[in-house]
Amino acid sequence: MNKGKLLIVGFGPGHFDHLTERAREAIRESEVVVGYNTYVDIIRDLLTDQEIVRTGMTEEVSRAQEAVRQAEQGKKVAVISSGDAGVYGMAGLVYEVLIEKGWHPDTGVEVEVIPGISAINSCASLLGSPVMHDACMISLSDHLTPWETIAKRIEAAASADFVIALYNPKSGRRVRQIVETQRILLQYRSPGTPVGLVKSAYRERQQIVLTTLGDMLNHEIGMLTTVIIGNSTTFVYEGLMITPRGYQRKYTLSKEIQDLKPHQRLQVEAEPWSLNAFGESSGKFVKEQNIATADKRKASVHPASLAHEALSVLQAKGLVETGITTIPFTKPVSIFEVAVSPGVANKIITPEQLVLLAEIAGD
Ligand code: SAH
């Protein structure tokens, strides 16, 4: 008997333009397609003469068991998930069912997981570029995960300033989770933090709403929505949600010739925020940052990397001595970043705000 095969397919957000070639091929070459009703409908046009096993929403376990059973009979079985099958999809469950049966990759049925575009990616692309920096995904569904665990993760992600993509934010039965999530997030982020709500990305009823953390609950959020919460640097420009990667720390994007020449750009002097800039005592640095001690260490700064406005304000306050590339700083990161980031000063901070920040740093 032929050894069967399980093809675990992520078909992306929903439009065939965003379905990978391998996913298309896998569905085509399979003899059986196993999936949730709605998902089978989405890929219907790709089906030829495959046997279809379709079940309802809470039937994932029986779906996975059936897929394994059919593969063990020697069939090629495609198990379909929206987005990526490894992100709150069927991949993990199929493996768990196999493992329960004592499956071994060399001797048991063959398994291929075919990656797809997950909602965090498809939704982000419709909003602008909100996931440009460190981000995480949190599912608000507490059907399988204790709420306490979810709340802890929201808090950790919020406090560490991650961009957060919330999957399964709300359903007919689960309406409180998103309210509680907003409450936790507001302890760490300002109500003005940009938030993107994308419903049915790349599907017929696609809807994109740009809102804020404070206001997001006044908009429709449902089972088909992904909520993307910006980090502390995310901003909105012409209806687009953008999270900077940090280029403005080092470059002036409006200038063609950069102050820092290519050979200088990776030097430690040009990256005073880097781990190497703190020598061997990096572990200590992190700890001290956390408890916000008034640390009098000095950081070397390349004069060229200082924002013009920042430099003059800091000079006026006696915080920078001209020609000497050292800035004393007490409460590092925020004021420090303003001082060394040409673009930040150019774009967001007014001279008045800079004066205020310099005064705070002085204290
Ligand atoms: N495996 C999927 C996630 C399944 S969990 C993936 O990788 O994308 C179901 C949740 O995914 C939904 O509640 C919603 O938050 C999100 N989601 C899936 N497809 C989406 C789409 N086309 N548009 C917006 N959100 C989507």
SSE layout and pairings?
Elements: E1 5-10, H1 21-29, E2 32-36, H2 37-43, E3 51-55, H3 60-72, E4 76-81, H4 91-100, E5 110-114, H5 119-127, E6 128-129, E7 135-139, H6 147-159, E8 163-167, H7 176-186, E9 194-199, E10 207-212, E11 225-229, E12 235-237, E13 240-242, H8 282-290, E14 298-300, H9 308-316, E15 326-328, H10 332-340, H11 342-347, H12 351-362
Helix pairs in contact: 3-4, 6-7, 9-12
Bound molecules: S-adenosyl-L-homocysteine.
The site of S-adenosyl-L-homocysteine has 25 residues, from helix 5, strand 9 and strand 11.
- CATH C-level category of the largest domain: Alpha Beta
What would you give as the CATH superfamily of the largest domain? Tetrapyrrole methylase, C-terminal domain
The dominant shape is: elongated
Structural class, by secondary structure, is alpha/beta
> On the 0-100 scale, what is the average pLDDT?
85
- Ligand types: S-adenosyl-L-homocysteine
Number of individual domains: 3
Would you report the number of β strands?
Answer: 15
Distance between the termini: 78 Å
What can be said about the biggest beta sheet? 5 strands, parallel
Could you spell the SSE succession in H and E letters? EHEHEHEHEHEEHEHEEEEEHEHEHHH
User: If you compute it from the alpha carbons, what radius of gyration comes out, rounded to the nearest whole angstrom?
Assistant: 26 Å
Number of helices: 12
What level of helicity do the residues show?
25-40%
For the biggest β-sheet, the strand order reads 3-2-4-1-5
What CATH architecture of the largest domain would you give? 2-Layer Sandwich
Runs in which pLDDT lies below 50 for 5 or more consecutive residues are 290-315, 318-334, 342-348
